[in-house]
Amino acid sequence: MIIKEQTIVDSLGNKIITTDKEIRIVGRIDEPLIMILENVLSFAECEALIDLAIDRLQRAKIGKSHLVSDIRTNSSMFFEESENDLIHKIEARVSGLMNIPVSHAEPLQILHYKTGDQYQSHFDYFTSGNVINNRISTLVMYLNDVEEGGETHFPSLHFSVTPKKGSAVYFEYFYNDIRLNALTLHAGNPVVVGEKWVASLWMRKQRYR
Ligand SMILES: O=C(O)CCC(=O)C(=O)O
Ligand SMILES: [Fe+2]
C-alpha cells in the first residue's frame, strides 16, 4: 500500500471556507499539493492592493545578500503587518485558507512585472545553511489578467498556471520526502504582452511575527 503524506491544507471537496469568503478549488495536483483557487480576492481588493503598492515598489532583491539580480527582474514591496483594514482582512483570510496561524506569515508582498520581466526558477524554501524556521507554503494571488505570458510555471511537473484576476495558486513543501518538496521548483514566466501584478505570501514553520 502506498501511504500519502500528510498535507497542511485538507483539499478534500471543491471549496475552502474562510472567515469571509468561500474559495473554489478549480484544479489540483495531489503530491506535492498544488491548488488553483478562484474567488480568493475580489476585483476591488485586487485594485486596492495595486493602488496601495504602486508608489512603494523597488527593484526586487533576492537572498540574504540583497543584491539586485537578473534572476528576478520584477519590482516588489512588502506591507507592514496588518497595516490597514484591508491588509488585516486579507491576512486573516489567507491564514484560514493556508491553515496556518497569521503569526507564522511573512509580510504580504506585492510583485510587479513589466513586459519582459520574469522570476527565474527557484524554491521558496531556503536550501543552504542551518535553517531553523524555514518556509513551508506559498500563496500567489493574481491581481490582474495578463495578456500573454506571466504564467507561474512548475518545470519539474510540466505544469503552468495562467494569471487570472482574483485567483491564486497555492503550494506547500513541508514533506518528509524531500523529493516532493523539490518538485515545487517554480518560475514567473516572462511577461510577453501587458504587465503582471501579484500578491504573494510565504508561511514559516514556526512563529515569525
Ligand atoms: O509571479 C509568480 O508567478 C511567482 C511568484 C513567486 O514565485 C513568489 O512570490 O515566490
Ligand atoms: Fe516563488
Automatic annotation (TrEMBL):
Q: Do the record's keywords include Lyase?
A: no
List the InterPro entries hit by this protein, alphabetically.
Oxoglu/Fe-dep_dioxygenase_dom (IPR005123), P4HA-like (IPR045054), Pro_4_hyd_alph (IPR006620), Pro_4_hyd_alph_FE2OG_OXY (IPR044862)
Which superkingdom heads the taxonomic lineage of this protein's source? Bacteria
State any single GO MF term: L-ascorbic acid binding
Give the required cofactors: L-ascorbate
- What keywords appear on the UniProt entry? Dioxygenase, Iron, Metal-binding, Oxidoreductase, Vitamin C
Domain named Fe2OG dioxygenase: which ranges? 104-205
UniProt-recorded name of the protein: 2OG-Fe(II) oxygenase
